[in-house]
Design goal:
Elements: H1 3-13, H2 20-25, H3 36-58, H4 62-68, H5 72-78, H6 97-108, E1 115-121, H7 124-137, H8 145-161, E2 164-165, E3 172-177, E4 182-187, E5 190-198, H9 232-244, E6 248-253, E7 261-275, H10 285-295, E8 300-308, H11 311-317, E9 323-331, H12 337-345, E10 349-354, E11 367-381, E12 384-391, H13 397-402, E13 408-409, H14 412-416, E14 420-430
Parallel strand pairs: 1-2, 1-3, 7-14
Antiparallel strand pairs: 3-4, 5-7, 5-8, 6-7, 9-12, 9-14, 10-11, 10-13, 11-12
Helix pairs in contact: 6-8, 9-10
EC number: 5.4.99.25
Keywords: Isomerase, RNA-binding, tRNA processing
Protein name: tRNA pseudouridine synthase Pus10
């Protein structure tokens, strides 16, 4: 062993009693095939041998006496005495490994999981002691106390449970709270992909808080805290929360339809983030799908449910797909059908839209360009026309008809020179 390492170790011992784990951890990045306690015990043994060599070769005890002056413990470790005192750095934390293992296993017994990660929340005193130790020793090879504790507890948990420790997005993170002397679980979300069809009007995609009370409950909302009694999110989530014994959900949809629109065809893609799920992969999603559809009472229907990872949320949010709408349009006056077809054909191509007045309270006032792929007149009866419109994602189709006071151009109303308004809207297809 290099003499500088001996000097570093002797300076550490001069600070007070230190356990094998804390001694070895100072040199954790040297001889990395050893555990810290084995490395620490070896360093102490070499120090003891060096002291004996000095006595035998020169009769000098100067180094030993200098080291002993500040610590009774140094005489024990370099002489014949054993390690008896409390480690000033960790307080003999590593003597309690088995206790923490039992607590972790007990906490994990309440949760379904395939992967886990151990994390430690340090006390202020431990952090301060470690900082002093690193500063006094001048080490460049150390690892933190919590890193060793996480690893040593994790190794035993793996062996006893057969589950794997995983650094990247484990099912559950076990937090050892040293200050509170307890274990806490942070359960990572699981994610379910699917598609939904909305079969009735007047239901928003997600829960809308009452604008008067902000969700707290008031006379205006019947003390529900909601602007609408139910939503797609709530109709889907209630059965999911119960099935997974979860704390809640977050609904991530690939865009959204208007409250008064139907969502038909193959349905709108979504990812449901399930938070705090104590049950996980044991849930049969095909059976859950049937349960959700029965509970939703033909208002909402889900399909294609499958487990996915968290990256699917970003994919859903960034999805840009063409959509096909069925629009029922009320015209201010009856006009010839041929003129209606001619004017509607002018809407094919690029549409310039400024954020609609109905959306400006919650969206930035920007100008966007979107394309209309096709527009076909399906039926026409007096002053009511039905159109099938296929367009780029993000186009406001109501404003494509009304013009929104010139904020959308071209528009059907502008082309006809009369007032036109969408009175019924259905999403009939979202391109997969």
């Amino acid at each position: 062993m290099d003499n500088s390492i001996l000097q570093m170790a002797s300076s550490i011992l001069s600070e007070g009693s230190i356990c094998d784990h804390c001694m070895g951890r100072i040199f954790a990045n040297l001889s990395t095939d050893l555990s810290n306690d084995v490395r620490g015990a070896a360093i102490k043994l070499v120090l003891s041998m060096e002291a004996d060599r000095m006595r035998q070769e020169s009769g000098s005890t100067e180094w030993l006496e200098k080291l002993s002056a500040s610590s009774k413990y140094a005489r024990k470790v370099l002489g014949k005495g054993g390690y008896e005192d409390t480690c000033w750095v960790c307080g003999n934390l590593f003597n309690n490994i088995e206790l923490w293992v039992e607590r972790v296993i007990d906490a994990l017994s309440a949760v379904e999981y395939n992967s886990f990660l151990i994390s430690t929340k340090m006390t202020g005193l431990l952090s301060e002691n470690e900082e002093i130790l690193w500063s006094e020793s001048g080490t460049r090879f150390a690892e933190p106390i919590k890193t060793e504790l996480n690893r040593e507890v994790g190794k035993i948990i793996e062996k006893r449970t057969g589950k794997k420790a995983q650094l990247r997005r484990p099912d559950v993170v076990v937090v050892i709270e040293l200050e509170n002397d307890k274990v806490r679980l942070d359960i990572n979300s699981l994610f379910i992909y699917g598609r939904y069809r909305k079969l009735v009007r007047g239901i928003p995609q997600t829960r809308w808080a009452c604008r008067i009370c902000g969700g707290k409950g008031c006379e205006e909302c019947g003390f529900t805290g909601k602007l609408y009694p139910e939503s797609v999110e709530e109709l889907v989530s209630e059965r999911v929360i119960k099935a997974f014994n979860a704390t809640g959900t977050v609904f991530h949809g690939a865009g959204r339809e208007d409250v008064d629109a139907l969502m038909l065809g193959n349905g709108r893609p979504f990812v449901l983030e399930v938070r705090g799920a104590k049950k996980r992969s044991s849930i049969d999603l095909s059976a859950l799908q049937q349960e959700i559809n029965a509970f939703a009472s033909y208002k909402v229907e889900v399909s294609d449910l499958e487990y996915v990872d968290h990256s699917k949320v970003k994919q859903i949010k960034e999805m840009r797909t063409d959509k096909t709408y069925k629009l029922t349009v009320m015209l201010e006056e009856n006009i010839p059908e041929e003129r209606l077809k001619l004017c509607s054909n002018k809407l094919r191509g690029v549409i310039t839209q400024q954020t609609p007045t109905r959306a400006i309270h919650h969206r930035a006032d920007l100008i966007r360009k979107r394309s209309v792929r096709s527009i076909e007149l399906e039926s026409f009866d007096e002053n009511v026309a039905v159109f099938i419109v296929t367009c780029e994602s993000g186009l406001y189709v109501k404003e494509l008809i009304s013009g929104d006071g010139g904020r959308t151009t071209p528009s059907l109303g502008e082309a006809l020179g009369i007032y036109a308004k969408v009175v019924g809207i259905d999403v009939i297809n979202i391109k997969s």
